[in-house]
Amino acid sequence: MQQIRKFYLASFLKNQTYFVPIIVLFFQDLGLSYSEIFWIFTIGSVFSFIIEIPTGIFADVYGKRRGILISKLLIFISFLLFGFSINFVTLLVANLVYELGKSFRSGTETAYVYGYLLQNKNSPTYTLVKANQKFYARISESIGTALGGFVAYHSGFSIVFFLAAIPALINFGQTITWAKLKECQQTKKINIKNNILFAKDSFRESLQNKGLRKVIMNVALFSAGVVSLEKFVQPYMKNVEVDLQYFGIIYSVFLLLAAFIARYATRLEEKYGAVKILNYISLLSIIPIVILGLGISSVWAIPLFFFVLMAENIRSPVSNSLFHERVSSKNRATMGSILELFKSSIKLITMPIIGYVADLYSMQMAFLFIAFIVMISMIFFWLNYQKPLKKY
């Protein structure tokens, strides 16, 4: 249980991201347009697309814990770079370092947690641990965003990133104490040919398994829609004349609510099943996005954004559990990276379009395009029940 508590501490520390309620405004304050802002995130997605598989292979071959440590160090450095940024180029560099750090973590951290729980038979279920991680993450974000909006209002945007670097560094330090998984006990020799074959086999597994393909595309499309919608929360609040110092408080209230909702993801999964939850949450999420797209402009419409973000907090632990049930243990981190690669590729395609639509037409048209993306994830990748793999 001590190691599991470390997982929860890591979730808390990594989400002390005080810049969440102001990051888009920070970009705009440095003179960036919507197109430039979305291009920063798009280029980051391209970079993530390129490095996802190599970082996943690194974790599977040379140790998941080692990959997680590299991730957390790079994320700490990226926060410092954001704090010193002055224009598009410096923001782009900071974001690329951040994406590199996330790529070492994506797929790897969930694979580490899943593997640890499998190796320790008295541990709680993965979905329960993941839901609790989401709970502590949202509690952390609710604290961080409330503080971040206040600090940005009184001391400026850049200070917020330097503040976020402190818990990031502590998180790196506490991860050094994590237990080693059995499969990571021995360091393996570098063999590029074997690594390529390893990646090829993992891709083949993801493409040949129809049920797994559907999960990957369903998660990737929904994620792209939610990530894009999230970028408009701050400009929308600014347009409806919410004062900057209250941005963090608004985020904090909804993130706190999301924390408690995420904690009940396990109960929902037990009662309705993972497949039904993912399918019907996608259906429900389209409604508030369409309402926003129809042109409503009011402080009272802000909860519509957060309804979709809270829906993702329910989907995330459930979809992670469903995904890991359908992949084998030998390449779980690489398969996790393949999932992240698909998520990055969908963002790569959609985010520049959404940015241009917002600049050329309006935010409302961008919302309707996002609703269309979520609708595709629901209609073409409606999930069906499939027995989990037994080869762990």
Summarize the structure in words:
With 392 residues, the chain is an all-alpha fold. It has a single domain (2-181, 194-379), classed as MFS general substrate transporter like domains (Growth Hormone, Chain: A, Up-down Bundle). Helix content is 79%, strand content 0%. The chain is built from 17 helices and no strands. The protein has helices at residues 2-14, 23-29, 34-62, 64-84, 88-105, 108-119, 126-155, 157-175, 192-208, 210-230, 233-239, 247-263, 265-272, 274-293, 302-325, 332-360, 363-379. Helix 10 (210-230) runs antiparallel to helix 15 and helix 10 (210-230) packs antiparallel against helix 17 (363-379). It is globular, with a radius of gyration of 20 Å.
Sheet with the most strands, sense and barrel status? none
CATH architecture designation: Up-down Bundle
Order of helices and strands: HHHHHHHHHHHHHHHHH
Mean pLDDT: 81
Question: In terms of topology, how is this protein built?
Answer:
Layout: H1 2-14, H2 23-29, H3 34-62, H4 64-84, H5 88-105, H6 108-119, H7 126-155, H8 157-175, H9 192-208, H10 210-230, H11 233-239, H12 247-263, H13 265-272, H14 274-293, H15 302-325, H16 332-360, H17 363-379
Helix pairs in contact: 1-7, 1-8, 3-4, 3-5, 3-16, 4-5, 4-6, 4-8, 6-16, 7-8, 7-12, 7-15, 10-15, 10-16, 10-17, 12-15, 13-14, 14-15, 14-17, 16-17
List its salient traits.
79% helix, 17 helices
Briefly characterize the structure.
The chain is an all-alpha fold. The protein has 17 helices and no strands.
